């Protein structure tokens, strides 16, 4: 059980809630944002003293029932709820190794996607396979040094990686990336490669360290992403993330809405990419 991390997470989750969001009256003017500790305790059906000790890292290990009640009181998402349980030491880490062998079914799907960018990525951020469109969009990962085949490392440690995104998108992309990585680590705190990646990123990137300390947790399953490609220009694409049954590999697919300008540019990218492969 990581008492200090658990306490920090609870405080941040409480601070973002309003009384109206949980069905409580606003009452007198509040000096600080968020719910009061006694309000969270009331919603969770526990004593204010016990909840306060949780937030002050002075509590004994909470029961699973108590954690579930606190998660409901704080309106946590499923990913945040799982993170809360992991911090309290209530869900053991997975002992299975994370394979870098791409499942045949994923490769089959990847091969069938000829008109849209798609790639298989581990939950650590390592690119395992790309189709031709993904290479045309973001470059051939297999041609990079090993460290830069990791999309998280590359985004925070190589400024050139951000040139693929409009300036106004870069902060959000960084925040979402770190939140996903935190959720992954919560599920596998004994994964030495994962722990090492986080340690190196915290040491090498002040931005990453600050975002990590913000303690946001989420797993992205769908999104809208904007790319600024050097040849075809701005692309606004729907991003779908398909998880393998074990959730350690993800098929990430980017599609353009039919009839849109991005769809026309994506088709141009397909032609340009095919020409590069033919003459490369």
TrEMBL record:
<protein>
    <submittedName>
        <fullName>Transcriptional regulator</fullName>
    </submittedName>
</protein>
<dbReference type="Pfam" id="PF17765">
    <property type="entry name" value="MLTR_LBD"/>
</dbReference>
<dbReference type="GO" id="GO:0003677">
    <property type="term" value="F:DNA binding"/>
</dbReference>
<dbReference type="InterPro" id="IPR010982">
    <property type="entry name" value="Lambda_DNA-bd_dom_sf"/>
</dbReference>
<dbReference type="InterPro" id="IPR041413">
    <property type="entry name" value="MLTR_LBD"/>
</dbReference>
<dbReference type="InterPro" id="IPR001387">
    <property type="entry name" value="Cro/C1-type_HTH"/>
</dbReference>
<feature type="domain" description="HTH cro/C1-type">
    <location>
        <begin position="34"/>
        <end position="81"/>
    </location>
</feature>
<dbReference type="Pfam" id="PF13560">
    <property type="entry name" value="HTH_31"/>
</dbReference>
């Amino acid at each position: 059980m990581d008492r200090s991390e658990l306490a920090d997470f609870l405080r941040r989750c409480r601070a973002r809630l309003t009384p109206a969001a949980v069905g409580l009256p606003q009452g007198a003017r509040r000096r600080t944002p968020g719910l009061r500790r006694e309000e969270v305790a009331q919603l969770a059906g526990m004593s204010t003293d016990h909840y306060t000790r949780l937030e002050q890292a002075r509590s004994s290990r909470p029961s699973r029932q108590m954690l579930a009640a606190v998660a409901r009181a704080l309106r946590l998402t499923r990913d945040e709820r799982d993170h809360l349980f992991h911090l309290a030491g209530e869900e053991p880490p997975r002992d299975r190794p994370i394979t870098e062998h791409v499942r045949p079914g994923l490769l089959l799907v990847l091969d069938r996607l000829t008109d849209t960018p798609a790639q298989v990525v581990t939950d650590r951020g390592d690119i395992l396979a790309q189709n031709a469109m993904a290479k045309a969009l973001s470059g051939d990962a297999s041609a990079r040094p090993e460290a830069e085949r990791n999309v998280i490392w590359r985004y925070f440690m190589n400024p050139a990686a951000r040139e693929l995104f409009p300036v106004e998108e870069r902060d959000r992309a960084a925040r979402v990336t770190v939140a996903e990585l935190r959720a992954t680590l919560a599920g596998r705190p004994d994964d030495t490669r994962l722990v090492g990646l986080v340690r190196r990123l915290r040491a090498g990137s002040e931005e990453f360290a600050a975002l990590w300390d913000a303690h946001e947790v989420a797993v992205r399953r769908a999104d809208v992403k904007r790319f600024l490609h050097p040849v075809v220009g701005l692309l606004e694409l729907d991003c779908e993330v398909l998880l393998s049954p074990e959730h350690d590999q993800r098929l990430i697919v980017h599609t353009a809405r039919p009839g849109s300008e991005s769809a026309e540019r994506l088709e141009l990218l397909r032609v340009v990419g095919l020409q590069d492969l033919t003459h490369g």
